[in-house]
Structure formats: C-alpha cells, structure tokens
Amino acid sequence: CEMCIRDRAGTASQDAEPAAVRGAGVDWVGLVLVSAGLIALLVPLIQGEDEGWPLWTFLTMGGGVLLLVAFGAWEVAFSKRGRLPLVPPRLFRHPSFTGGVVLALVYFAAVSSIFFTLSLLWQAGLGHTALESGLVSIPFAFGSIAGSALSNRLAQRLGRTVLVIGTALVTLGLTAVWLLLLTVPAGELTSWHLLVPLLVAGFGNGLFIAPNVQFIVATVDGRDAGAASGVISAIQRIGSAIGIAVIGSVFFGTLVVQGGSAEALASGFTTSSAAAMGVSVAFSVVAFLLVFALPRRTAARGSH
Predict the structure, then answer these.
(1) How many CA atoms lie within 13 A of 227 on its CB side?
(2) Which residues, including other chains, have CB under 8 Å from residue 61's CB and lie 6 or more apart?
(3) Which of 26, 42, 139, 291 could be cross-linked to 199 through a Cys-Cys bond (beta carbons 3.0 to 4.6 Å apart)?
C-alpha cells in the first residue's frame, strides 16, 4: 500500500544518513586547531611565572585564543559541508547548553585546584609528609561518597535544586578553608581545622558530580545527547587543567619567603595558599550562579 511504501522510503533515508556520516572521516583539522589552541593557552600559564612573564607568554596566549576562534569557524564550515565535526556547532544554539559547558569548566577549575594548593602548603610549606598531606583530603573524599550516594534520589525529588545545594555547599566549604588560611597562624594550622570545611565541600561535590551531566545534556535535542556528553567530558578535563595552571600562577606569583627559618617558610606558603584558595572560591561562586542556566528538571525533556 502507499503508506507502506512511504514508511520503507523513510526508513531507507534514515539508514542512509548514518552511512554518509560514517564516510565523513575524522575531523583532523579541528583536532589540530583545538589541541594547538589549548596548548598555547596552558603552557604560558604554567611557565609564565617561572620565566617572569616575558613577551612570548602573552603572544602565545593571544595566539591560543585566535586558534580557538579558528577552530570554532572551522567547525561551522565543516558542518555546513555535511561532514561530522569534532564539536557540532548546533549544540551551542542552546544558550542553556553553553551555560552548562561554562559551568563544567569553571566548577572543575575550582575543585581540582584545591588539592594542588593544600598539597603544596602541607608538604613544602608546613613540612609534613606526603602521607599526612593525603590524609588532609580524606574528609572531602568521604563527603563526596556520601553526597554521591544521595544525589540520584535527591535529583529525582528536587530537580535542579540538588545542583544548587551542591555548588552552595562547595562554595561554603571552600570559603571556610580560605578564611582559616587567612586567620589561623601558620604554625598552628592542623588538619583538624580543615576537617569540617572539607567534609562540607566534599558532600556538595558529591551532590553535584553525579547528576550534573544529565542536566546539561537535557538542554539539547535527544539526537545530540552523545555529542553533548563528549563535549562536557572534555570540558571537565580542560577545566581541571586550566584551574591548576591559573592557581599555580597565583600561588607562586604571591609566594614570598622572608628569611630561611621554618616559620618564615610556613608563613609565606600559608599566605600564598590563601591567595590561591581565594581564586578557587571565586570560581565556585561563578559555578553556583551558572547552575541556574540549567533546566529545572530533566524528565520532561527526556520524555519528549
């Protein structure tokens, strides 16, 4: 019958599209552009402080920005030719998805960098062993386990509010750590001071980490869910790298040790740690605000 013919024709056209995509090949130009752009941004951030921020660091970062702009333009052109781009430009037609990508970048920049800061302080500044430095982060780990265990159930009941609570707790915990580094004398600072703040931040991290991807993916069409998940995963890793690079520049850029005594070393590292932690707090505040760009719930989008 006529209806059967139309159905078969529609099925054939749907089957033809994946075949065309499979023959599109790898977006090597896009891969090279985005890789070169990220390297050009990160290397100056890592090396700039040691080198005294010479002219090449600023020129390289500017070149990195231009390479990323070129990457975006190439992805648009590549997509218009019917090819499969590394990052489908249509994803960013959804403002909420763009906000979610920035959220992932900023959040992981905030959280990943705190252990970099505390490890340097505990070992190089306060003279503790690597084991003692690792023990400092245990409350955060326990909090993350507890938060993750509850996150799925809370996300079903509260929707986006679970992400709001999670980022608020992370911000609260990091702010408390920052205030402790500012007010407690370096010689008196112990892991007990950080236990509750890191436990609170870890619990918030657990609430956020597990459900955040599904809320960001819910902002795009169902056919783009796989590509969106890949973009978010890559952005999380990039955010971690950028966070450590920025925090490292702040840490060593503010590090001043007056004298060769252990007290002077501890004081200098504690002051630098406070400055670095302040940047992590700023990142977490931005992440908290960006959560409100995400949909309130994911069920309606998924059923649609």
Answers:
(1) 16
(2) 40, 41, 44, 45
(3) 139
Region 202-214: what's the mean pLDDT? Answer: 91
pLDDT digits (tens, 9 = 90+) for 163-187: 999 999 999 999 999 999 999 998 8
Asked whether residue 141 carries a pLDDT value surpassing 50, the answer given is yes
pLDDT of 161: 93
Mean pLDDT across the stretch 189-205? 94
User: HEC profile for 11-28?
Assistant: HHHHHHHHHHHHCCCCCH
* Helix axes 28-51 and 55-80, enclosed angle (nearest 10): 170
> Concatenated DSSP letters for the chain?
-HHHHHHHHHHHHHHHHHHHHHTT---HHHHHHHHHHHHHHHHHHHHHHHHT--HHHHHHHHHHHHHHHHHHHHHHHHHHTT---SS-GGGGGSHHHHHHHHHHHHHHHHHHHHHHHHHHIIIIIT---HHHHHHHTHHHHHHHHHHHHHHHHHHHHHTTHHHHHHHHHHHHHHHHHHHHHHHS-GGG--HHHHHHHHHHHHHHHHHHHHHHHHHHHTTS-GGGHHHHHHHHHHHHHHHHHHHHHHHHHHHHHS----SSSHHHHHHHHHHHHHHHHHHHHHHHHHHHHHGGGS-S-SHHHHH-
CA dist., res. 111 & res. 203, Å (int):
12
The pair of three-digit structure tokens given for residue 157, joined into one six-digit string: 């009941």
pTM of the model: 0.82
CB atoms inside a 10 Å sphere around CB 255: 18
Specify the amino acid at residue 134: G
Long-range own/partner contacts, residues 154-158 (CB < 8 A, 24 or more apart): 154/207, 155/210, 155/211, 155/214
Mean pLDDT score, 265-283: 94
- Residue 268: CB atoms within 10 A of its CB come to 18
